[in-house]
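name: query_chain
kind: protein
chains: 1
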Amino acid sequence: MRTPREAGIFVYRDGRLLVLRRVEDAYWHTVAGVVEPHESFEEAAGRELREEVGLDATLLDLDHPVLYPVTDELRRQYGYPPDVNTVTVRAFAAEAPPRWEPRLNEEHDIYRWCTVDEAVGLFHWPETREAARILEKRLVRR
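structure:
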């Protein structure tokens, strides 16, 4: 059973974002995954970051949780239990070291380093586009 909690992680370096293409659905996204029942959002974000791209980094919480409804299609596709009607997603960011490149797991087939504008143009989900803009504002203030 899939939990109603997810974490998304933006990997950035030198003003660019890492964008990954998912194999299964062929859409562009960030590192992301389900929060397991025994994990916090931050623990899941760190685990997903290591599993999907091989990066172990300090996480910045973007402090912008998003809720999305579980439709009948999502329930069938991902196996949400009948009592789950919404999913909470928390977004994080991680700075990649100089010259680091991801080691993609089986969930992704290619990646790109993009400006925020380019990434927003590629991202499939509107919530991901919105979180990318929040990250952009946070990085400018640093």
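note: The chain has four helices and eight strands.
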